[in-house]
Each structure stands twice: as C-alpha cells, then as structure tokens.
Amino acid sequence: MLDIGASITVKLVKAPRPNTSYRGVVDSDDGTHIVIRAPWSGTPAKELAGVSFGPGDTFVEHYWRDRWYAIKEVYGDDGALKGWYCDVTRPARVEAGAVVVADLYLDLWMSADGSTILRLDEDQFAASGFTQRDPAAAAHARRALDELERIARTSGFSMLHRPLHDH
C-alpha cells in the first residue's frame, strides 16, 4: 500500500498517443482503491459541455487495482465541485513511486448537478483498431463504460465525494 501524504507520479499510458505523467499526493490506499489529489496539469485549458478545466483546478482521482476505470472528481479553484470525469482504463498498477494506468480511449463525464452525462470518445475507440488488437480488453472497456453510465444515471458518484476542505 502507498503511504498517505506521499508524493507520487501518475502515469497515463495512452499508446499509440503520447503518454501523460504528472505529480499528485496520496490521499488514501486500502490495497484496492487508491485516491490521489493532483492539480490540473494540462495545457492549455480545455472545455467540455460548458465546463472549463484549467489552472487552479484540483482533481481527486480514484484508481482501483481491480476495476477497468478511474473516476476523477474535478474541483474549481474556488473549491466547488464541477463534476466527475471517468476514464476507462486497465486496472491500476503501482510501480516505482508511480500509479500506472493504461487509458483505453473511452470516457464519461457527469456534471456536479447530474444534469449532463456524456459518453466520450467512442469514435476514437472504434477507429483505434483496439477491438481487433485485443478483443478481450476491448470487451472489458465497453462493459466498464456501460457500468460507469449505469452508476451515473442511478446513484451518481457522490459516494466518492471528498471535499477539498478535508485537507
């Protein structure tokens, strides 16, 4: 298990696209579920469904060693929850001071008030050839996206909510 409060690198493997790495702090690790807090690391700022992501934002990132997705709570610089950005990934691995997850193209966005739920990048997934290269993993990815959408539409992700003022 990772030490709470330790600095850690998050590595998003996006082959054949460029990989992404950034630093965060371990919030918790129960042996299966890892939570990391990290500042926005992308440039430039981005917009999705009328919500801007950029400098000053904080992500509370939930990774599992046994699930095919990661869920990121997105907070603005004012501490207000913007929503949840969900990545379909292979289960997380911990190695040499890093949490490593392989991104599988598919994503889901849910706004903080639950009024917007969007399945994202299904066109990229289809065009990637991933289904032909690794049919079993592609099937896991599709099931993971369906599960994320089901959670979003029924109970939402508030069970993961970790307000910024807790730290």
Automatic annotation (TrEMBL):
KW Glycosyltransferase (keyword) present: no
Keyword terms: Hydrolase
GO molecular function, one term: hydrolase activity
Superkingdom field: Bacteria
Pfam name, any one: DUF402
Zinc-finger is among the record's keywords: no
Protein name: DUF402 domain-containing protein
